[in-house]
Amino acid sequence: MAYMIQVDFKMNGPFGDEMADAFSDLAKSINEEEGFVWKIWTENAETNEAGGIYLFESKESAEKYLDMHRKRLEGFGIPEVNGKIFGINTKLTEINKGPIKS
Questions:
Q1: Which residues constitute the domain of residue 51?
Q2: Per the domain annotation, does 100 fall within a domain?
Q3: C-alpha to C-alpha distance for 19 and 25, rounded to whole angstroms
Q4: Residue spans of the chain under pLDDT 50
Q5: Which of 25, 53, 56, 99: disulfide with 61, CB 3.0–4.6 Å?
Q6: Which residues contact residue 37 at a Cβ distance below 8 angstroms, ignoring those fewer than 6 apart?
Q7: Which of these, 1, 23, 3, 2, lies nearest to 11 by C-alpha position?
Q8: Which long-range contacts (CB under 8 A, 24 or more apart) does 34-37 make?
Q9: Could you please report the per-residue DSSP string of 72-90?
Q10: The domain spanning residue 34 has which CATH number?
């Protein structure tokens, strides 16, 4: 079963193209994480929030990544990270054209 991670946190920027430039190496490194399938990067400059939605192949790989990511964000000076792991109902998600692996 595929598992999704939902992460959000307060961040004072950068956002938009500046965020893409600043974090492109980080984005490339995420592709190498065990069990990683895809990520959607999220941002809201008006509320100073950022985060992402991730898809992993297993619960174990999602848990391992979330633990590592929380520690990495703390190292970036972001002490409060909201992170949740969810199983995915693939049958319903496929009806709504969700980009998942069955």
A1: 3-95
A2: no
A3: 11
A4: none
A5: 56
A6: 2, 54, 55, 56, 57, 100, 101
A7: 23
A8: 34/61, 34/64, 34/65, 35/60, 35/61, 35/62, 35/64, 35/65, 36/61, 36/65, 37/2, 37/100, 37/101
A9: HHHHTT---EEEEEEE--H
A10: 3.30.70.100
Look at residue 88 in the predicted model and tell me its pLDDT.
Answer: 92
Name 86's bridge partners: 4
Q: Is residue 90 part of a domain?
A: yes
- pLDDT score at 100: 77
Structural domain contains residue 65:
yes
The encoded tokens of residue 66 equal 């979330």
Global pTM value:
0.89
| pLDDT in the model for residue 1 | 83
Q: What is the pLDDT of residue 101?
A: 63
CB count within 10 Å of CB 97 equals: 7
102 belongs to a structural domain: no
Number of structural domains the chain divides into: 1
